[in-house]
Amino acid sequence: MTNPIDEHAKTLATSWTVIIVLAAIVGGVGGMALQSGSDSGPDNAVAVVTLDSMQITGSSGDTTAKELRQVRQNDSIDAVVLRVASPGGAITGSEVQYRAVKRLAQEKPVVASVRDVAASGGYYTTIPADKIYTTPGALVGSVGVISSVTKNEKVPSQWKSAPDKGTAGPADVSRARAATFRESFLNVVMNERGDELEVDRETVGEAKLYAGNRAVELGFADEIGGVETAIQDAAERANLSNYDVTYRNPTSGGLIGLLAGSGSAEDVDAEDAFVAPELCGKDYLAYAPQAGPDLEVIMNASC
């Protein structure tokens, strides 16, 4: 006759065995996931660097440049995918990121993958890439500049840094500086993408945003595809058949990241931090700012 107590004990033992096996399986999967995002690992790796700042600032640009420099100097990383979701930001930060990507692309294959938006400074960051993929619904482009100047009459008119400074008002100065960067931005786009673009310089300078499919048709991007396609492309460019994938996110795309951006330059190599002096200015943004009652929009195009 079967002992009920023995049968119950066997059932419990079997149940615990199943739980332990499942825990081992889950633990193994978790271990693999953590390993894929680790900085240390086997050679022949493709690094996926996420650039998703809500607003590129001088500070976030510096952080991104430092991360890209580390990727460039890491011998275990053979190719890089930039996963971009950024509407742009400050000119200085955008310029720093562009220079860092440009330097990286000179040493390793770089493929860009536009997730949601690569506009203005976000697009500026992607254009040195060897290839730009975009999803069909992403927004790509916006090659221009927005600048604003205060209209607050309480600002003393006698504040001048030199005797001749009163010959042009703040709006005139901002227009001139915005026009200077607009031309610089256009020059970079035409130099980097001129062979692919199906539109002329004047049309590019209209600062329009295009949905992914249209962006590919016009040459602002190269092909429709997601991040997995971009990873495979980057690996092929580096002649990798077996490779690891590491994930990096140097900046936060949330509200904390936006509030933390001070616009200051911190601990960036000179090689990654070149910005033409005439392009520096806090009032230039690579996305359309919310104009308050004390702001006059100088150039209604976003960079």
From TrEMBL:
Report the transmembrane regions from the record.
Answer: 12-34
Please name the Pfam families in this protein's record: Peptidase_S49
Could you tell me which residue ranges the Peptidase S49 domain spans? Answer: 103-153
CDD domains xrefs: S49_Sppa_N_C (cd07023)
**InterPro entries in alphabetical order:** ClpP/crotonase-like_dom_sf, Peptidase_S49, S49_SppA_C
- Give one GO term, molecular function aspect: serine-type peptidase activity
**Record keywords:** Hydrolase, Membrane, Protease, Serine protease, Transmembrane, Transmembrane helix
State the protein's name.
Protease-4
Q: Which organism is it from?
A: Halobacterium jilantaiense
